[in-house]
Design goal:
Radius of gyration: 18 Å
Number of helices: 9
Largest sheet: 7 strands, parallel
Distance between the termini: 47 Å
Strand content: 5-15%
Strand order of the largest sheet: 3-2-1-4-5-6-7
Order of helices and strands: EHEHEHEHEHEHHHEH
Length: 261
């Protein structure tokens, strides 16, 4: 299969962490990848370090801005002429108690984490439909939510609510887009060894998570990326409307841990 014939995935929040790991996973699987991020310099630096950068497209975009999203999708289509899958990974967080979380902070988190996936998927839907019709197989959307959307914990009022809303948006999208041969699922990561986690999780926090997770460790970015790639693949052809926790069994314990920050 030539580069022009390869399937195309759009990955938001692709400059680092899970988004970057997922971009590399798709490239290794033979896909072309449109990597989107609000931080253009960081994104371009990440792409410069990728061996298969000739199969990447850099898109600087704020996913909460409808006009920017429309322009980014147009640029993608002009470059690749097709779109087969979308991974809504871009996200932000404010970790503060309810009483001190400002409305501006609340609004920003919901704009990026919930409105962003709505806008990106809406702008991509017609192209995903065309791809499904052309291939005679399904297109796919994967939203990256969080275990914070499945269970409450302190300091996550805006983040947790935004991710819970994204889980419901996933089901709504699956119901409405299924007739067009588009599958929509969500991945809910548990604690993952990202650069951000390494920076903000103290030794005590890491020890508490290890005690609470049945597999006794953090996940890796590659483990999350593996599930995302699977859900976008034809092997997942009868999976839609699901929120899959990739969390080492953390959500299954059902034990609240209010001390975890």
């Amino acid at each position: 299969m030539t580069i022009s014939q390869s399937r195309v995935v759009l990955i938001t929040g692709a400059a680092r962490g899970i988004g970057l790991a997922t971009s590399k996973k798709f490239l290794d699987a033979g896909w072309n990848v449109a990597m989107l991020d609000i931080q253009e310099e960081t994104l371009n630096a990440a792409i410069a370090d990728i061996d298969l950068q000739d199969r990447c497209l850099s898109l600087a975009c704020d996913v909460s801005d409808a006009d920017q999203v429309t322009q980014a999708i147009a640029k993608l289509m002009n470059h690749f002429s097709r779109l087969d899958a979308v991974v809504n990974n871009a996200g932000t967080a404010t970790f503060k108690p309810i009483r001190s979380t400002t409305f501006e902070e609340w609004s920003h988190v919901l704009d990026v984490n919930l409105s962003g996936p709505f806008l990106v998927t809406q702008a991509a839907t017609d192209h995903l439909i065309q791809s499904a019709e052309r291939r005679g197989k399904q297109s796919a959307v994967v939203n990256i939510t969080s275990i914070s959307g499945l269970r409450a914990s302190t300091l996550r009022v805006a983040y947790g609510v935004s991710k819970a809303g994204l889980a419901q948006l996933t089901k709504q999208q699956a119901v409405e887009l299924g007739e067009f041969n588009i599958r929509v699922n969500a991945v809910a990561p548990g604690p993952v060894d990202t650069a951000m986690a390494l920076k903000v999780h103290t030794a005590d926090i890491r020890a508490a998570y290890h005690d609470a997770i049945p597999l006794n460790r953090y996940g890796t970015e590659d483990e999350i990326a593996n599930m995302i790639l699977f859900l976008c693949s034809d092997e997942a052809s009868y999976i839609s409307g699901q929120v899959i926790a990739v969390d080492g069994g953390f959500d299954s314990t059902g034990i609240g841990l209010p001390s975890l920050r």
